[in-house]
Design a protein that fits this description.
Blueprint lengths: L1 E4 L4 E5 L2 E6 L5 E5 L17 E3 L9 E3 L2 E3 L6 E3 L5 E3 L2 E3 L6 E6 L9 E6 L2 E3 L12 E7 L2 E2 L5 E7 L2 E3 L6 E4 L1 E7 L2 E3 L13 E4 L2 E6 L2 E3 L5 E5 L8 E4 L2 E3 L5 E5 L5
Parallel strand pairs: 6-9, 7-10, 8-11, 9-12, 10-13, 11-14, 12-16, 13-17, 14-18, 16-19, 17-20, 18-21, 19-22, 20-23, 21-24, 22-25, 23-26, 24-27
Antiparallel strand pairs: 1-2, 1-5, 3-4, 14-15
């Protein structure tokens, strides 16, 4: 039901499929409930538009009260609609703990939306610090790089604890309607930051709210960084508390002065 343009990294339309017919063993003919302008065909998923069945993409999945730890790669890659990720523990993993992703080079699922990440504990993520992977990232990629538009919608990151993060806690890209509420980032260890990145990064996104954030890490230089790719009025930051490095800045806002 979701038609994705992988070259542009955008959703062309959401439509119903009303009929599926076999042309041969390899090709199916789909009849859509309405026309979609600009649909492309091709011989690969990168060359042609992709069609994802939103009714069969783990919509409404619940991931609750699990332990993810001591492994290489990503703990949860969420490419679903309506996922609930709550009350889990992530400890010493080598990649993202939670990736809310759409990677159009991989035909694995639609653009995610309506996601809740609540009351989880992230400890020592990313374990090796060999690449700049935070605990949570939203991101839309296309072959050759990331897109610059906010396709991921309605993500709530609420009341999570990030302990001893090596590479920041949250990296929000390509998203709108994100609410980061009542989270705590803290570290009692020294010399653990292989990449001195902000605790929270906001870019290529809009309609963002960060409220009730605490960053207690004497070796972090920036609490929240708002990149110039966030539009004026696109981020609201309230009730923030910081204890950072001696020269640290609570908020760095790269957007032009309004």
């Amino acid at each position: 039901r979701a038609v994705l343009d992988p070259a542009g990294g955008r959703i062309r339309a959401e439509v119903k499929v009303i009929r599926v017919e076999d042309e041969n063993s390899f090709i199916k003919v789909l009849t859509l409930g309405q026309g979609v302008d600009g649909v492309r065909s091709g011989k690969s998923r990168e060359a042609a538009d992709n069609l994802f069945n939103l009714d069969a993409c783990c919509a409404g999945v619940v991931i609750r009260s699990n332990f993810f730890g001591h492994h290489r790669g990503r703990s949860i890659v969420c490419k679903a609609v309506g996922a609930r990720i709550t009350d889990n523990r992530f400890e010493n993993v080598d990649g993202l703990a939670v990736g809310i992703l759409q990677e159009s080079g991989w035909g694995e699922g639609p653009v995610p939306r309506d996601i809740l990440i609540e009351r989880n504990t992230f400890t020592g993520v990313h374990r090796l610090g060999s690449s700049p992977n935070p605990s949570i990232r939203t991101h839309v990629a296309r072959p050759g790089g990331q897109v610059e538009i906010p396709l991921i919608e309605n993500v709530r990151i609420v009341s999570n604890l990030f302990e001893n993060p090596r590479v920041g806690a949250m990296d929000i890209r390509n998203a709108s309607g994100v609410r980061i509420l009542g989270n705590t980032i803290r570290s009692a260890k020294t010399n653990i930051h292989d990449f001195r990145l902000p605790a929270v990064m906001l870019m290529h996104s809009r309609d963002l709210v960060v409220d009730g954030l605490t960053v207690d890490d004497p070796e972090t230089d920036v609490g929240v960084k708002v990149y110039a790719t966030v539009p004026a009025g696109g981020a609201v930051l309230t009730n923030l508390r910081f204890r950072l490095s001696p020269a640290g800045q609570g908020v760095v806002d790269e957007r032009p002065a309004r």
